[in-house]
Amino acid sequence: MDATAFRYKVQQALQAEGVRTGLWQRLPVPHQRIFQDRVGYGHGCPWSCREPSPVEYRIGDYPEAERFLASHLYVFGINPPNGPA
Do the bridges between strand 74-75 and strand 21-22 make them parallel or antiparallel, or are there none, so unpaired? Predict the structure, then answer.
């Protein structure tokens, strides 16, 4: 079973027990439209701040972020401090 399928099964089991869960992010930050469309910071920076711009956010350059998001979820209502009570 791959990481995403396993995460889904864990999420289903937790939700069946009344534990609310969710996905923190669905896409790594560099995959998001603001970076892919090069409109960051509302003025096109960092791409338009210097020419030529060395800044690139290529999909596929962040495999660890992709793996992390595929395999993780969060549980609502668990906040520090997480003592015995």
Answer: antiparallel
Query: In whole angstroms, how far apart are CA 72 and each of 13, 20, 52?
Result: 14, 14, 37
Q: What is the pLDDT of residues 10-33, one digit of tens each?
A: 999 999 999 999 988 888 988 888
The answer to whether residues 9 and 16 touch, using CB atoms and an 8 Å cutoff, is no
Domain spans of the chain, in order of start: 3-75
Q: DSSP letter for 80, please.
A: S
pTM of the model: 0.67
What residue ranges in the chain does DSSP mark as E strands? 21-22, 74-75
